[in-house]
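Quarterly update from the structural biology core.
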Amino acid sequence: MNSSQAEATKGDILVVDDQPNNLRLLSNLLTEHGYQVRKVLSGHLALKAIQVNPPDLILLDILMPEIDGYEVCSLLKASEQTRDIPVIFLSALNETIDKVKAFQLGGVDYISKPFQLEEVVARVENQLTIRQLSLQLKDQNAQLQQEIRNRITTELALLDLNQELENRVATRTEELRLANEKLQQLEVQLRQALTQEKELNQFYNRILATIAHEYRTPLTALSSSAQILDLYRDKLTPEKQHKHLQRMQSAVKHLTRLVNDVLFLSKTELDKVDLTPVPLKLAEFCREIVEELQLTATNRHTLQFNYQENCPEREWDERVLRQILTNLLSNAIKYSPNGGVIDFQLYYEQDEIILQIKDQGIGIPPENQARLFESFHRASNVGMIQGTGLGLSIVKKCVDLYKGKIYCQSEVGAGTTFTVKLPL
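Predicted structure, tokenized:
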């Protein structure tokens, strides 16, 4: 990509897919988001295009005739000229062995078909950001090494000067020592950045696997209800039509929650979440959330909300509080399969606001409670109850943003109580 194109676009992306519809859809989507897009229909054409003008990133379909995506990626990673180009695989293959093979061959990400447009854009932006940071770090390291080499050359030249310059040599030697220390510090920072990059990649890969699994149920519900309404709408009673519409709405809400959780958790991993407090009537806010969740709960669940009068008025970050309460209340509903009362208490003590949510659900085994707030961790007794293992991790990060504390008391078969204390 030449300099004028680089200034006008966010990056040069090569899309490889033997399906013209996919090429057109991805090209239009990425072009709208400011990228320069080239598209080819086969692996052979992709290899030629890459040799002529290497792109910044490749979206590569796996199932193609003659030469598949796996072989294309292997050839790219075998060449010094192209091995550093990030490759995101696109495929309808959704088995774990297919994804493992993709990452073993050098792929940086894996998007399952049918793909979500927002997901494609997010993953492309993420990988291009990582690539840019890595290149910047390499350039900075090379510049620092050159600077040290230049300083060493200068110091060696000073050794050939007369006695009058000995004091300057000693001074320069000290500068060199300090410069070497600076270089070592920067090398440590570089290693830490590379380690963080690796951990982030592993984190996003786990998110990909988890969310891909969780997407199946709501997507299946959406697809089946949409097909039924499309084919048999005239034959269905209004009640059955409404039932399918409600089913679709519920699936969409579930997908939206998954996306919001992943986006929020990703921002916290990158330290991009800051508190944005605004005036908020806390009791009314909590009541609204309870009423929203009561609509999604079954008839077996009863949500009770009690609060202390005259709670001190403060400014709160509505988004962060919503994450805390929605995840805790949703978990209380989800892990109380037999229903019962879910009790939500709001009160204050001295300089703290207390949020306490108690359910009559399945409880958490003692051996699982130590890892309760780890991402992707789920208790051993959840059985067939679906979940990503991200909810309590998000709650903990939100509580930490407020420098608050969260406690859990639980007994298997009797229920769980979560207590959140936020400083005023």
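The two ends are 53 Å apart (CA to CA).
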